[in-house]
TrEMBL record:
SMART domains: MORN. It holds the Pfam family MORN. It comes from Streptococcus himalayensis. The chain crosses the membrane at residues 20-38. This is MORN repeat protein. Keywords: Membrane, Repeat, Transmembrane, Transmembrane helix.
Length: 134
């Protein structure tokens, strides 16, 4: 070990350490920056019962995409950190559909809910609940 130290100790200078440190900071900054760039991809979740096709950032659904559930339900629209967020359309296999704003996976804001019987509820939703009922 002493021989190894004596052989390479000439390289252990403050200047070399500073150069090495700056290089490591640049490398890690590039890794952080490139991991934030959206990419197109497909994710399968919950033992392949849910399929996502769309933008992925850091392994999560982010941006525009389509989420298809095993039972036939489909959500198409905006995602943020893996949840429905922004404008989108959720179409249930049972026949109902919600088009409008989503926040954290729930209808929130302006939207239109069309039931299986074709009744239409248009207006404001809060935490998934229609707010214009009289």
């Amino acid at each position: 070990m002493k021989d190894l130290y004596e052989k390479y100790s000439i390289y252990l200078t403050r200047q070399n350490f500073e150069i090495f440190s700056v290089m490591m900071i640049v490398i890690f900054a590039l890794i952080v920056f490139t991991s934030s760039i959206p990419s197109q991809g497909v994710l399968t979740l919950d033992n392949k019962t849910i399929k996502y096709d769309g933008n992925i950032v850091r392994g999560k659904m982010n941006g525009q995409g389509t989420l298809t559930f095993k039972n036939g339900d489909v959500y198409k629209g905006s995602f943020k950190n893996g949840s429905f967020n922004g404008k989108g359309t959720f179409t249930a296999k049972a026949g109902w559909k919600y088009e409008g704003d989503f926040v954290n996976g729930q209808p929130e804001g302006q939207g239109v809910l069309t039931t299986e019987g074709k009744a239409v509820y248009k207006g404001k939703f809060k935490q998934g609940i229609y707010q214009n009922a009289h």
